[in-house]
Amino acid sequence: MRRTMVAGNWKMHGTRASVAELIDGLRELALPGGVDVAVFPPLLHVSQVVDGLKGTSIQVGAQNAAVQSGQGALTGEVAPSQLIDAGCAYVLVGHSERRQLMGESDQMLNRKFAAAQASGLIPVFCVGETLEQRELGKTIEVVSRQLDSIIGELGVDAFASAVIAYEPVWAIGTGLTATPQQAQDVHAAIRAQLAEKNSEVAQGVRLLYGGSVKAANAVELFGMPDIDGGLIGGASLNADEFGAICRAAGN
Ligand code: PEP
């Protein structure tokens, strides 16, 4: 039985003061049992959030980590082992903003995924198609290629201790959301692709949907059989809205 998960990606938002307010709001939430909740603040605020959420069930993740697990001469980067030391449990790998805007290649993402796992972080591996790719009917092909890149390099078992987030690029931060059926179709295809190699891994891996999820559309999305929760961007910056999404995942 897969536990549902709701993850909040704060992206490059926040100051120490606004983060403190958000922490206060999160601490007041009545969160449902049976749902793993995690937030992904900017690296700068990870320690503040880890300290601020002590005593709650909310876990903390990072939005990025280096391609090597241990410390070293890599100016400007943060090692997965340092994130573990700081109290992180998860790290995002392959978010479309990093693929597109920071030029992160499949090869680099393979290294980041492996380095994260080597340190004990759980990668949340993001996949998804652009609007153009969807309109050309290439959604499954694109997502499948992104997954294959990890499977080819690290083996399907890499997904035994990872989370996958399907995030159509056209739905991120745009207010457009995939319909529950559109999202379900891709999630089912992801699970089927993994099942071809290892059915146990396919059945166990959590598949989150991301792309303009709000409290208003969360129940329907999370009600689909292969959607195990959500990766939430904008709506995770509001504690009440985020709490409502977490409760939707608990239904
Ligand atoms: C995201 O950035 O992962 C995301 C899903 O953003 P939003 O919810 O704002 O579309």
UniProtKB/TrEMBL annotation:
GO terms for molecular function: triose-phosphate isomerase activity. InterPro entries: Aldolase_TIM, TIM_sf, TrioseP_Isoase_bac/euk, Triosephosphate_isomerase, Triosephosphate_isomerase_AS. CDD domains: TIM. One of its GO terms (cellular component) is cytosol. Substrate binds at residues 9-11, 173, 212, 233-234. GO terms for biological process: gluconeogenesis; glyceraldehyde-3-phosphate biosynthetic process; glycerol catabolic process; glycolytic process. Pathway: Carbohydrate degradation; glycolysis; D-glyceraldehyde 3-phosphate from glycerone phosphate: step 1/1; Carbohydrate metabolism; erythritol degradation; Carbohydrate biosynthesis; gluconeogenesis. Its EC number is 5.3.1.1. It catalyses: D-glyceraldehyde 3-phosphate = dihydroxyacetone phosphate. It is found in: Cytoplasm. Pfam families: TIM. The active site is at residues 95, 167. Keywords: Cytoplasm, Gluconeogenesis, Glycolysis, Isomerase. Homodimer. Involved in the gluconeogenesis. Catalyzes stereospecifically the conversion of dihydroxyacetone phosphate (DHAP) to D-glyceraldehyde-3-phosphate (G3P). Belongs to the triosephosphate isomerase family. PANTHER family: TRIOSEPHOSPHATE ISOMERASE (PTHR21139). This is Triosephosphate isomerase. It comes from Pseudomonas trivialis. The gene is tpiA.
